[in-house]
Amino acid sequence: MRAFDYAAPSSVDEALRLTKPGSAFLAGGTTLVDLMKLDVLTPDHVIDVNRLPLNGIRLSDGHLRIGALERMSAVAAHPTVMVHFPVISRALLLSASGQLRNMASIGGNLLQRTRCDYFRDVTAPCNKRQPGSGCPAQTGVNRTHAILGSSSSCAATHASDVAVAFVALEAMVVVRGRGGDRIVPLEDFYLLPGNTPQVENQLGPDELIVEVRVPVSPLARQSTYLKIRDRQSYEFALTSVAVALSLRRGVVLDARIAAGGVGTKPWRLRAVEDALKGNPAMEKTFSDAAESAVDGARPLAQNAFKVTLLKRTIVRALIDVAGVR
Amino acid sequence: MRATPIGQPVDRVDGRIKVTGAAVYAADNKPAGLTYGYIVTSTIGRGVITGMDTAAALASPGVLAVYTPFNPLKLFAYVQNQNDESAPPLQDKEVRFHGQTIGFVVAETWEQARDAASLIRTTYQQQPPVTAFPGPPAAMEKADTDAEGPDTVLATGVASVAQAVAAGEVTFTASYSTPVQHHCAMEPHATVATWNGDHLTAYTVTQGAVLSVRRLSETLGVDAAKIHVISPHVGGGFGGKWGNWAQVPLACAAAKALGRPVKAVLTREQVFTLAGHRPLTVQNLKMACTADGKLTAITNDGITSRGFAGSWSESVANWTLTTYASPSIQVTKTIVPLNLGAATVMRAPGEANGSFALESAMDELAERLGLDPLEMRMKNYATFVPNTGKPWSSKHLDECYRRGAEEFGWSKRPKKVRATVDGDWLVGTGMGTATYGASRGLASIKVRLSADGTASVSGTAADLGTGQYTVFAILAADVLGIPVDRVRPELGDSTSPTAANAGGSNSTCTNGPAVQVAAKAVQTELVALAVTNPKSPFHGKDPAEVVYRDGSVSSGGLTMSFGTLLTTCDVGSVEAVGTSPRLVDPEHGFRSFGVHFCEVRVHRWTGEPRVTRWLSVMDAGTIINVKAARSQIQGAVVMGIGQALLEATEVDQGTGRFANGNLASYLVPVHADIPPIDVRFLDHPDPLISGLGAKGIGELGIVGVAGAIGNAVHHATGVRVRELPITLEKLLGS
Asked: For a 10 Å CB count at each end of chain A, is N or C smaller?
């Protein structure tokens, strides 16, 4: 960790005014402080945003609105979220540990950095950390890496669970800059690595996520999040699936599906959704539909199993949420 | 007579101070004027350091010194092999592994030392590191490395073990492999060194204070009598704190050079590279048996890595020598040096990995023969030590099998694999045999009775969280006839009498008898005081007429507690040192035994294996504290579940880096992974190991765990996994 300046503004405008090259926002600190300790991030100026008025969880104008500074634990336990958006609550509860969930903010969660061990070790090359230095994960230890959205520059997965739930539910982030707010669908907010894996999202250096908005829908009420990992708690996903389903008389009317642990960003599975619609909610439908989940997959030496595992995770999650076999 | 506390469930005597944070660990010590050291590590896996620019570091705020191979602390060669690095740090410019010590920065604060360390610019002449075995497991038999000679037992009339295998009615061949694994003790390696003139006091993590004294004496060139090592509490060792790794000599030598106390604590990432690991192993196993399942020959060719920086490697095949009866057995060991940190002992070194292969193979062979796994083991029950033919000191493994099978419900186990499905989970059960060597070494213990009515028991032994403190208290309380809470055990101080180090499951069987001897001897001293001290009411009596019992001295109708007697005599305390000799019994084989039964569920869609039921039945001689002993076995089973399903240190082959050398990416089990673990002890004293009859339990519990889990996974799914850990991708095909 290197020495840095510290400021704790009390308004968003002030926080935005304080931004400059080499500055970083600090919310829960569960990513930033961690990576500063590892010298992966070395900001000169840390702007603590915890005093900003960015709290609140409420339903309004057909949306669930979550203030960016709400803690993961508070969102997970909120009655509205639990009843109307079980997939969000479940994705949060399957993340991290109790201590981390009490600290980490929703805005920060969406911006958390990858868990790629090459990114996190400054003695290794990494295009994301040091553009142009190379990506040892392509041929190295890559069991946990992405099979979707990766490039020869980067195969790091996006680590957030709740972002997967948000993308499935077509959530948006409200981003505030010096010129005002803009609303960006979360799916588009994240960028594919391409040749610039250091650019992970649309957020400008002088912008702050202030809110997450999730449209209320009947789908969201029948939703779940399934996370597959080696150990049963406190581990990032090998694969995960957020599923929201609308059924009538045993037929799938509508579906929203996104996957985690497999993509360089939360991965919406529209082709799977389309293949489900209008078909009977049964294992066969689910298995057939899941086949298209891995279109364009780019498996590496150690993570080819994720191709099969992702499809199986989708089927399992659909069986769970549909309540059928 | 008081009821004996031996074998009762006794709360840890050190429990309260540990859960309240009052227990002082090595890094908690802050002598006045303390400075902080930070170890600089190599960023290449093999090569030679050509230069280190330390100017910026030296100019950095608070920096007191920067030591490098170009400006080393003087350290003499290590003499005693402590299963760690072969040579002291900074004495040459060769890089043998990624993350090796190449510098040591000392500053006024830890942050200053760390920041200065990051300013050092090192140049290397790099070479490609050797970080893997030279071929696929099956091709490793003839690895061109420093192989040790075979250990061979041949049945009468058999010319070679190969011939014996070839002549088998049924033969079986398979290769089993295990990855690098790490101890991951909670407490990182820490040393705080402070000098007073030419006397050194070192607060350090250690599994034996005398090991640290010896190492420091050798490498610093200081008389051992001038070195005081203090290590009352150790936050987990598992073998990783047997050696005295780089922070020990560096902190002590720097403190001397700077004339200020120095603290050095490894970061978690440094613990992975600098403090040892369980090596890579492969076992190529060939077995032959009769059509009805009697083994006729076994060969196990074991391959183990070692680090170029160390000499230790696993005798991974040796467990095959002593477990099942077979007229012909041969094991070999091939050692492949790699550019990884020094390999070292890790809980049941050899046995934990060795049993994975043999316990898996016994099931594989049983399946081929249509035998129940337990029946297969009973058919090959070793009534005598398989490789020597000697009788056992005691062995009740058959009783463990019977009792375990009954309590677990083994007879209800379907013979076929994939026979039980519960919802979407495939359910299987498996078993594995546990055995671990037992021995009794030389130990001395001091017992002191004080005027306040308490007794202290001291020896250089270590409590790594094992319960050794409480063992001392129980045994002393038993012999002295006083409550356990009036005994104050004192461990981890090198100035105490020399007791057993915490290693090889040796502590209780070695130190226990010495505690008993000392607690008896101090009674004689007390009686001698009673009859000789003029202030004593027993003054002038014949010692033979004065009896010590239950904390009091009695004679002729007068009884006085030792506290009152000492107070009356105006004597603060009496003490005695008791010594229990090393056991030399070449006629018998000494081992602890046990069996694990488990249930594993594998999800039929996503393949993740989950352990859902566990029973261990252990035959480890006399159990001193059934509560702590149960914890020991449970902890070992937890570690074994990690070994079987989760733990693998991944080596980045290009660089020799441990790619997941941190506790976020190296997966140890969490609570959610662990089912209730039932543990039973037979509690049959071993009549030959000591009067106490206790054998070791520290390592026994992990042996056979991975095999039992692998067997249960196979029973659930029909898939046999011969490479640890058994992760879900290996089961997706099921």
From this structure: C
